[in-house]
Specification:
The protein is α+β, with helices and mostly antiparallel strands and 144 residues long. Helix content is 26%, strand content 10%. The chain has one domain. β1 and β2 form a beta hairpin. The longest helix has 10 residues.
């Protein structure tokens, strides 16, 4: 392990797993599957020992930045206990109208910029004429 990887794992939580998560996963986790982005999913072993422990513990080890929008919908449903069968054990084929999963792009250069946004490329389209700018003189005339 490189020094930078060791320091990152020691001092940051947003770049993958910390040492605490690593050891907890090694001791109490059972690997369930991996998605197309490299995220690895686990379930806890404690439920097998004591069924009264509550719902089964499920978690993800992110392959990059810790961001829930990096988790595809099928795995998100499994993590939230919406589905009991993990996607790695299902034979699901997406419909032709389903788009591939995209993570949240807010704050990146690939973020959506609607037409008229000051951050959008190109010129803003001209106003349609139904907008009248506020002025203090007209506001005083209307009030009095």
């Amino acid at each position: 392990m490189k020094l930078i990887d060791f320091l990152t794992r020691t001092f940051t939580w947003w770049n993958g797993q910390t040492w605490g998560t690593y050891w907890f996963t090694r001791r109490h986790g059972e690997r369930v599957g991996e998605d197309e982005f490299g995220n690895v999913y686990y379930k806890g072993l404690a439920r097998h020992i004591d069924p009264s422990a509550g719902p089964e513990l499920r978690w993800v080890i992110y392959s990059g930045t810790v961001e829930m929008s990096n988790v595809p919908p099928s795995w998100r449903a499994w993590l939230a206990h919406t589905h009991d069968i993990p996607p790695s054990e299902e034979n699901y084929t997406p419909r032709e109208w389903e788009l591939p999963h995209l993570p949240n792009m807010t704050g990146t250069p690939e973020a959506y910029r609607p037409p008229g946004s000051t951050k959008a490329t190109g010129r803003r389209p001209p106003a349609t004429g139904d907008y009248v700018a506020w002025s203090p003189d007209e506001a005083a005339n209307r009030a009095g």
